[in-house]
Amino acid sequence: MTAAGPRRVLVTGASRGLGLRAAEALADRGWSVVLGCRRVGDVGPVLARARGRGAPVSAVALDVTDPGSVAAAVAAVAELGGPLHALVNNAGVFRHEEEEFQDLRPGDALDLLLTNACGPLLVTRAFLPLLRAAGGAAVVNVTSRDADEDTFDGLFTGYRMAKAALNAMTRNLAIALRPDRIVVNAVDPGWIPTDMGGPEAPDSLDAAVAAVAGAVELAGGDRTGRLLRAQRPPGSPGRRRADGATRR
Question: Where does the secretion signal sit in this chain (predicted)?
Fold first, then answer.
């Protein structure tokens, strides 16, 4: 917390899953949290609970694939007053239908790239003035181990490609934004039991939340351009394919 009040963080895709849990954890750590979600009404109960215990939280409508929505979100966050000390690019999509390459639909391919790669890039660009104003900030991109070449198995090509692009963005922006004291890192949360990951996911949601929150708190430091991984439970089997094999 600073003399002017708590540091502010925006979390995209914060209406459920990892984004919501990370937002709640950051509020508990003393951050002023802005939940970015496509429908603000979805987080009404969350806002009420957080405010009931004195946490400084708010929400803005934000669709990371819509430039108009992004611009409106920037204006809404600016109206809250003060700079933005951290941005968590968590919003993402996964399409089970594209498991086999021949089943990939053009619309899904575009959606994967727009949401998982272009969205974080354009959101970061739009919020750059507010991040610069903090005098030391953090951008955290939620990625996936599916982008690692040693996991390639011929499945989910569009998703892997989009997350690999996100990793390239992370490394390049870490260099570009270093003069502004903005660290840019990626976090691999593992395969976690959320709406996206499914109930059979073997990795720890709590560990993923801790990894994201820890990356946010690197704001103003010098640890940048890194791929940070959540701690995995011993013997975690990785993601199970339809044929019974596993992948991580």
Answer: none
Catalytic residue among 7, 21, 163, 232: 163
Q: What is the CATH code for 8-247?
A: 3.40.50.720
Burial bucket for residue 184 (CB in 10 Å: 0-12, 13-18, 19+): buried
Q: Is 239 helix (H, G, I), strand (E, B) or coil?
A: strand
Give kind and range of the element (H or E) at residue 9.
strand 8-12
Q: To the nearest 10°, the Cα dihedral for 125, 112, 116, 205? A: 160
Distance of alpha carbon 17 from alpha carbon 139, whole angstroms:
19
Choose the catalytic residue: 159, 181, 208, 218.
Answer: 159
15 burial via Cβ count (<10 Å: 0-12, 13-18, 19+): buried
Distance, CA of 184 to CA of 166 (rounded, Å): 11
Active site residue 159: yes
Neighbours of 96 (CB within 10 A): 11
- Which pLDDT value is given to residue 244? 32
Q: Domains of the chain: which residue ranges?
A: 8-247
114 catalytic per annotation: no
